[in-house]
From TrEMBL:
EC numbers: 4.2.1.59, 3.5.1.108
InterPro entries: FabA_FabZ, FabZ, HotDog_dom_sf, Ribosomal_Su5_D2-typ_SF, UDP-acyl_GlcNac_deAcase, UDP-acyl_GlcNac_deAcase_C, UDP-acyl_N-AcGlcN_deAcase_N
Known role: Catalyzes the hydrolysis of UDP-3-O-myristoyl-N-acetylglucosamine to form UDP-3-O-myristoylglucosamine and acetate, the committed step in lipid A biosynthesis.
Location(s), subcellular: Cytoplasm
Signal peptide limits: none
Gene Ontology terms, MF aspect: (3R)-hydroxyacyl-[acyl-carrier-protein] dehydratase activity; metal ion binding; UDP-3-O-acyl-N-acetylglucosamine deacetylase activity
Keywords attached to this entry: Cytoplasm, Hydrolase, Lipid A biosynthesis, Lipid biosynthesis, Lipid metabolism, Lyase, Metal-binding, Zinc
Pathway note: Glycolipid biosynthesis; lipid IV(A) biosynthesis; lipid IV(A) from (3R)-3-hydroxytetradecanoyl-[acyl-carrier-protein] and UDP-N-acetyl-alpha-D-glucosamine: step 2/6
Names of required cofactors: Zn(2+)
GO annotations of cellular component type: cytoplasm; membrane
Name of the protein in its database record: Multifunctional fusion protein
Length: 478
């Protein structure tokens, strides 16, 4: 079923102080056209710079998710993004007149209420879903974190947290329907921290806008009356502070029995919005935090960009083939008689690629190499590996159609076995190092699983209008 993109019907604003910076901010949500995505705009800065809500722009995850371009920053975006993702809004402009969105009550509910007040409307373009068709796993043994995305023709998240704390205990929760559960069951879940963290966070310049109305403080150690009074004065709290009998400072009631776990799910939902596309997947997470969330999102984002690349060049889906010969000719400038790769059967963007060349008796080079004893020239095997490597340079953000790849060096080339007519060459090329205009790759060629050639290849990537000769281009780029 075709599902359309969504935006809001009219602008809507709310104001308050940021959780960590304590600076006052007005946030304004504005409608945006189809395929615009989610963008933050700092209207208090010259030129009103925009930052796309994509994981490439994450610059800090110490106690929240911070986006940045150059010196421009937007702190603690996860609650805003959770509200947008939870309401399944695809296109929206978020204007801020300060560095951090208002914290509100510490949940996503204030943003959800504002967006619902603005109204949500469908747009003409279909949603660009990322279909998870393979398991994506992230693990950090040192922190006990495990996150997985599994194939599912829907979207669900299940969370488990365990802080070894009597007041908190082990908690879990699951969101199985954004439409039915998000607004009432998850958007109101507030942020939380432990009492032992409060002073440390304050000393780090954080939680300047935090108070007992916008955060749950979990009591995890005993404090004397003198210590409590000192902390109250330090944080400028007007109300009397006491250790709650329910394990929460000042006996603040929880909105849900497992509110901390629900808030962790809310944070993960906001961080997942940085993939840049809604997903069809089952997300399972044990002990997640912003640092692990973002590393997990980077892996998913990479898969998304790879799938977009494949869709861009490979018009017809074929079993066991990533790029067929027609797609390869859309990517590479090479043509007969100097195209030495027939198809790509595996492709991990920026990491590894596997290509196939069927060596037939009709190859032009067999006429002279050698008459009566046809053998494929070793340099052409390396050329085939290099062409396969040229496809590996696709990174989802730039096109290779207007670029050439020039050899700069070939090192440690070895030819192990001859290649004859009728052989099927398998090229395996791995990225060793990639810079903006230069790269190093290592290629291996196999026939019947036996290594026939290998080499390290260095290349320069140049756009077509910029070069007249290899030597001039490299001198210009260096």
């Amino acid at each position: 079923m075709l599902v359309q993109q969504q935006t809001i019907k009219k602008p809507v604003s709310l104001s308050g102080v940021g959780l960590h910076t304590g600076q006052r901010c007005t946030i304004t949500f504005k409608p945006a056209p189809s395929n615009f995505g989610i963008r933050f705009k700092r209207i208090d800065l010259g030129g009103s710079p925009e930052i796309p809500a994509l994981v490439e722009y994450v610059v800090d995850v110490s106690r929240g998710t911070t986006l940045g371009i150059g010196e421009v920053r937007v702190h603690t975006v996860e609650h805003v993004l959770a509200a947008i993702a939870g309401l399944q809004i695809d296109n929206i402009l978020i204007e801020l007149d300060s560095i951090e969105p208002p914290v509100g009550d510490g949940s996503a509910k204030p943003f959800v209420d504002a967006l619902l007040e603005a109204g949500i409307e469908k747009q003409d373009e279909p949603k660009d879903y990322l279909i998870i068709d393979q398991a994506i796993l992230y693990s950090d043994e040192s922190k006990g974190v495990d996150i997985a995305a599994l194939p599912l023709d829907d979207f669900r998240i299940t969370i488990m947290i365990d802080y070894k704390n009597p007041a908190l205990g082990s908690q879990h929760t699951g969101l199985f329907s954004l439409e039915k559960e998000f607004v009432t069951e998850f958007a109101p879940a507030r942020t939380f921290c432990f009492l032992h963290e409060v002073e440390m966070l304050y000393e780090q310049g954080l939680i300047r806008g935090g108070n007992l109305d916008n955060a749950i403080v979990i009591v995890d150690r005993e404090l004397s009356r003198e210590e409590i009074d000192r902390l109250s004065r330090k944080f400028g709290l007007n109300e009397v502070v006491f250790l709650g009998s329910n394990g929460i400072l000042n006996n603040k009631p929880l909105r849900f029995k497992n509110e901390p776990a629900r808030h962790k799910l809310l944070d993960l939902l906001g961080d997942l919005a940085l993939v840049g596309a809604p997903m069809r997947a089952q997300i399972l997470a044990a002990r997640p935090g912003h640092a692990s969330n973002i590393e997990f999102v980077r892996k998913i984002r990479k898969l998304y960009l790879q799938k977009k690349l494949v869709k861009k060049y490979q018009f017809e889906k074929k079993e066991g083939i990533v790029f067929d010969i027609n797609a390869i000719q859309r990517i590479l400038p090479h043509r007969y008689p100097f195209l030495f790769v027939d198809k790509i059967v595996d492709f991990k963007m920026g990491e590894k690629i596997i290509g196939v060349k069927n060596v037939t008796g009709n190859e032009f080079f067999f006429q002279g190499h050698f008459p009566g004893h046809p053998i494929m020239p070793g340099v052409l095997i390396i050329e085939g590996m290099a062409q396969t490597g040229g496809i590996l340079l696709l990174n989802g953000e730039e096109s290779m159609e207007n670029r050439y790849v020039y050899f700069m060096a070939i090192k440690n080339a070895k030819f192990r076995r001859p290649v004859f007519p009728g052989d099927t060459l398998i090229y395996e090329v791995e990225m060793v190092e990639r810079r903006s205009k230069y790269c190093t790759m290592y290629g291996r060629a196999y026939v019947d699983s036996k290594l026939v050639a290998e080499a390290e290849m260095m290349a320069a990537i140049v756009t077509k209008p910029e070069f007249t000769s290899n030597e001039q281009t490299i001198e210009k780029d260096s």
